[in-house]
Each structure stands twice: as C-alpha cells, then as structure tokens.
Amino acid sequence: MAKKKSVARNGPPAPPANPNSTKGNCDRLFPETLLSKHNKQVLHLEDLIPNAVFVARNALSSKECEDWINYAENNSGWDVVAHPATKWIAHRECSRIQKNDWTMAHRLFTRIQQIVIDASKQLDIFDKSSRINSSYENKSYQPVTCNPNLRLYKYTKGQWFGRHIDDTNKIEWKGSDTPYTDVSEAQTEITVLFYLSTCRGGATRFHLPNSTKRKGSKGDDGSVAFAPTQGAVLLHVHGDKCLEHEAEAVVDGIKYVLRTDIVYGVC
Ligand SMILES: O=C(O)CCC(=O)C(=O)O
C-alpha cells in the first residue's frame, strides 16, 4: 500500500490564547492608535478559490499599514523564526512579534466583520450537528471575533515558509476580556492575513487537492497565488478543510503580514 504523504502543520503550535496574561500589562498590547476608529471603508469580498480562499482590498489604509510597520520596527523586538523542513514541520524563515490582545483582535474583527459573514455563508464546512448539541437550542455556531493571538511576520529577501496546513485552535473563553460573555466551544476556523506591505515575490500560494489547471490560475500546476498587496486581507478556511499553502520567497522589498484567525463559537 502506498505510504500516506505527510503534510506539514503550521510550525510549532501558537501559544494558547490566555486572556488574563495581557491584563494590566499595556506594553504587551498593541497601541490602540494602530487602527483608526474613523475608517469606514466598505469592503468587497473576492473569491480567490470559491468556498475556500477570499480576499478584500483596502481593509487597512496605507497609513494604518505604515503605522503597524513603524511600530514593529521601532518599539518591539522581533523573534527570529528559522527552521528547516522536517517530516512534520514546514521550512520557515521570518521574524515574528506575537502578543495576546483581545481588544485589538476584536477591533480587527469589526473591521472585516461584513466580509467574514459573507464568506461564512459560502462555507458549508462546519458540521454543526457535531458541534452543537441539544443543550444549545436556538443558538448557532458563528463567527464571533478574531484570535487574540496576534502575530506580525516580517520576511526579508529570500525568506519563505514552506507548504503546510493551518490547524484549528481552541480558544479559552472566560468572559472577562472577551467581547461577549455567553460563548461556548470557541475555536478558530479561518486564517486571516492582513498584508501590510507590497513587495516582489512573497506570494501566498494555495495548492488544490487535484492538479487540474484552473482559469485565472497563476501557477501551471493548478495552484493559485495572492501577491502581497498593501492593505488587503486574505481569509482561508483552516483545520480539516485547509488547503496546503506556502509563502513564496521574497524577491525584492520586505513583506510584512499581520496574522490572526476568525474565532467561531456557539451563541
Ligand atoms: O505569510 C504568508 O503569506 C502565509 C502565512 C501562513 O501561511 C501562515 O501564517 O500559516
């Protein structure tokens, strides 16, 4: 029998979101000025791969993107992430800043809430019957916020992240720092990437399970890529339905990305 091909998961697991770890410790939070309260841009959802990968342009203004980059470069230390591929972990090379910030996470969610709802309607992926037991009558499993585990990635020339899939993560929902109190079974379902810069190379490329060439595909192997575009946001389903994807090597410039996830919960 043919050996099953192993698929790399998304690097070392992200630390569990701990709402209490950020309380009263402001330098562990992102400054609230990084996201304008006045940005009322209406976002339009585009299907990059129907039912799986979506993008919207101008989710962040160029000023907001530059502010995030300046903050990252001037105020916080980058951790270096560098490991070769193993059977279980994808090759990865980038710098990363990671903070748990419920307030910023929920503000980011509010910014993209409408397109999340639009995308979510297309995603016939959640077996609600297995998630929602009879004690949850009149409730539904729905997007509630973004993962407070916010990650900034910086890729310089030649840096890349190999093919992998992203897992779902359970989110501890205590109700003290969370945006709503009455949410159960909170877990991440969708990866969110905000592109803070435009660069050459560095595309996020998705590989379809079959290799039939697709209309509009940039790859000759049936893969579909999104080139980093300042201000754009990309959403892709993760967990069991996650498409294998990678971040291609940066050719020129610096790629900055703000990564979070959409958290679903029963409410
Ligand atoms: O940086 C990218 O373009 C992709 C990042 C990614 O694949 C991830 O965070 O899992």
Quick description:
The protein has 267 residues and is α+β, with helices and mostly antiparallel strands. The chain is 15% helix and 31% strand.
Low-confidence stretches: 1-5, 11-26
The CATH H-level superfamily is q2cbj1_9rhob like domain
Order of helices and strands: EEHEEHHEEEEEEEEEEE
Q: Give every kind of bound small molecule, once each.
A: 2-oxoglutaric acid
How far apart lie the N and C ends? 45 Å
Number of strands: 15
User: What is the overall silhouette?
Assistant: globular
Rg from alpha-carbon coordinates: 18 Å
CATH class reads Mainly Beta
Number of domains: 1
Mean pLDDT figure: 86
- Provide the β-strand percentage band: 25-35%
- From the 3D coordinates, which CATH architecture would you assign? Sandwich
The CATH topology corresponds to Jelly Rolls
* Class based on secondary structure composition and strand pairing: alpha+beta
Number of helices: 3
